[in-house]
Amino acid sequence: MAHLLGAESLHLEYPTRVIFDRVTIGLDEGNRIGVVGRNGDGKSTLLRLLSGRIEPDAGRVTRRTGVTLGMLDQADLLPEDLVVKDAIVGDKDEYEWAGDARIRDVIDGLLLDVPWEATIGELSGGQRRRVALAKLLVGDWDVIFLDEPTNHLDVEGIAWLAGHLNKRWSPNQGGLVVVTHDRWFLDEVSTDTWEVHDQLIEPFEGGYAAYILQRVERDEMAATMESKRQNLARKELAWLRRGAPARSTKPKFRMDAAYDLIANEPPPRDTVALSQLATARLGKDVVDLLDVGVTYGGTTDADGHTTGGIEILKDIEWRVAPGERTGILGVNGAGKSTLLSLIAGTLLPTSGRVKRGKTIRVAILSQQLGELADILEDRVMDVIARQKSSYVTGGKELTPGQLLERMGFMSAQLSTKVKDLSGGQRRRLQLLLILLGEPNVLILDEPTNDLDTDILAAIEDLLDSWPGTLLVVSHDRYLIERVTDNQYAILDKRMRHLPGGVDQYLQLRSQQTTKGQTVTESHRVSTSAAPAGVNSKGRTKLAGAELRNAQKELGSVSRKLEKVTTQISVVHDRFASHDQGDFTGLAVLQGELKPLEDSMAELELRWLELSEVLEA
User: How far is Cα 153 from Cα 368, in angstroms, rounded to an integer?
Assistant: First the structure.
């Protein structure tokens, strides 16, 4: 395979430590590299070195003449006043970019909910990130570097990105280097893995599953002192083989070796024992949602019937069992947070009823780190000293200090103030404090943020022996499949069981999207010209200036629809966060919503009229 770029004897150090020492690595045509390693070991720095964004202290980076390179950095920022359309297609005419299959694919995959005429400054953080990713992907690059590209993408978006990258180049062309904590994504797109650790880069053949196998083999042969890390890797390998049979089709995943290594490894979870423990702690009743519906706004009559308002959930029938481990899937805004609020008891249903067990103690690992707000000035050791002296997990009694070590804290970090911890360290401390509080119902809301693959494996190992009811909302497909036994989706405001797991969810969403492919999916790319003449039904087709004007108006109506859709979504979010007892405030929000919905109805009618004319 032809050489694309490489690094020779790289050395890089900061005032306090050495990042890389005498590192030599290369990227050839057809390589798809996944980069793994602990937070802070230099994964992002490696990408910046290879891309030329920073220079090494010694050694050199070489690139074959004519090779083009594009990179998505974690800190990539677009100008606040830049219009989305200009960021993606520049000054190209609509017929030109609409005829480009790559651009259409990227727009449909990443930007369907992003207003085409909005400026970057008007977008949310997640939308900005997706625009930056789309801007990169519409380009024609020989090599692409991606630093945490799955941030702000949901399960569908991650699946789309994996498919896009897999078909972007032919098997022996192009090069990809990606840093991400999303292990499903790594396994889906990578042909090789680079592990960054201890100032060096160690290459492994195959994706994430193959890397885990080889790492266990390496640890066994070397007989290193990393017994704890090795045991976690063994457990994860056992799950990869037993719990995810689809991965066994990877050509480089050596089946016999994997079976030998996990021959004596028990299943990740003793489901029967955990269920018995959970029943003992919880009783038979946890939370029952009985014909539950949630509507924001509207008016309720004397019989309890609500009219008007925004319906979020309806006809929800779910009896949460002791020891149940369930993953919840759904697009942003589908109602996942509303559902969890019903379980936690922080929200009352508009219709139906919620029956709660008398002994349940709910804890939520939220994205906001609110549990740490009052202890930011405290040292980690002082925070832990105030907790209970022991914690039983997997039949073993551990001290809080041992739990800290198990979750990746070093002894030197015990004297660090909470405010000075990294994002990932705060996340781990947050989970530890919640577990030490011994809840029996644990809700995890996007728990993978800021965590590397090794720490995620440690947390999953801890959750394997946690004897309670576990509910998880996450875009991390690997985590969902790893720690939960059942998955449900919120589709069309209702809950649906997914015996086929995440794959079934993606199929259902694809069918749903195909059926609803009218307004949003035809935006910006539905203006391809039709030849003048007469169709089979005898109706005359538009031609010349009339055709161009109709196409132009259709594009304008589509963009207005996107804008109104976004504005309606914003009002819906305000409904969701507003005090449900403040009827005056809810009425004001309803007053804002009605003209937007009226405008959408008019625009949709005009869109249908124009579409019918253009399809004649």
Answer: 18
At residue 521, φ and ψ (nearest 5 deg) are: -80, -15
Least confident of 58-72, 191-205, 446-460, 599-613: 599-613
How confident is the model over 291-339, as pLDDT tens digits?
999 987 766 666 656 566 788 899 999 999 888 899 999 987 788 888 9
As a whole number of angstroms, the distance between CA 519 and CA 559 comes to 10
Neighbours of 19 (CB within 10 A): 20
Euclidean distance between CA atoms 223 and 273, whole angstroms: 33
**What separation in angstroms does the CA of 484 have from each of 89, 280, 327, 335, 469?**
42, 20, 6, 20, 10
Amino acid identity at 105 = D
Q: How far is CA 410 from CA 35, 36, 312, 405, 421, in A?
A: 23, 20, 45, 6, 12
Amino acid at the residue 166: N
Q: Residues 313, 474: contact at Cβ < 8 Å?
A: no
Q: CB of 1 within 8 A of CB of 9?
A: no
Q: How far apart are the first and last CA of the chain?
A: 51
According to the model, what pLDDT value does residue 361 have?
87
Reply yes or no on whether the pLDDT at 548 is more than 70: no
Beta strands 306-307 and 441-445, pairing class: unpaired
Residue of 561, 555, 559 whose CA lies nearest to 597: 561
